[in-house]
Specification:
167 residues; 434 Repressor (Amino-terminal Domain); three-stranded antiparallel sheet; two-stranded antiparallel ribbon; 7 strands; 31% helix; elongated
Length: 167
């Protein structure tokens, strides 16, 4: 399993608190923080009698295998040319800004501001525009960080890599 701080593959990780953040790190990096005790599991009081209502059991999900970080698979982000895509999509549908606004239940001024790039759409608005215009406004972004001697592609960036970049 990889250390979240230095990236070294180790068989066992320790949970430590470093600068207010809980991390799973190797023994070498654990010296930079304080060990976090495992949270105690307390039993909930049991209600009984006619007033007791049965509650569904709480499900916990256990993830086995390697953890994914934000950089491992890239992220979906709004395309840089989202305004051009909206304009082109609207023109392909041969509709005006007013007609598009009515279709997605927004004001014409919102469409105008989106097309000029003055406004970035919310996630909800992105979905409505993509559906109405049959376009894609978000795209997967792969990250690549250069750390002095070597390039670290997505999936390999650790806190240690970022610290080395600043030096």
């Amino acid at each position: 399993m990889p250390c979240e701080m230095c990236g070294k593959e180790v068989p066992r990780l320790r949970k430590v608190q470093i600068g207010g953040t809980a991390l799973e790190v190797c023994n070498e990096c654990a010296r930079f923080g304080e060990d976090r005790p495992a949270p105690a599991i307390e039993a909930a009081p049991v209600a009984s009698g006619p007033a007791a209502v049965a509650e569904p059991p709480v499900r916990t999900f256990v993830h086995h295998g390697r953890k994914r970080d934000a950089l491992s698979q890239g992220e979906m982000e709004l395309a840089d040319d989202y305004n051009r895509r909206i304009i082109n999509g609207r023109r392909k549908k041969d509709i005006t800004q007013e007609e598009l606004a009515k279709r997605i239940n927004e004001k014409k001024s919102v469409i105008s501001r989106l097309e000029t790039g003055e406004m970035r759409p919310s996630d909800r608005l992105i979905k409505k525009l993509e559906k109405a215009l049959e376009i894609k406004l978000v795209e997967r972004v792969e990250f690549q960080v250069e750390t002095g001697k070597k390039k670290v592609a997505s999936g390999g960036v650790t806190l240690g890599d970022l610290i080395r970049m600043e030096r």
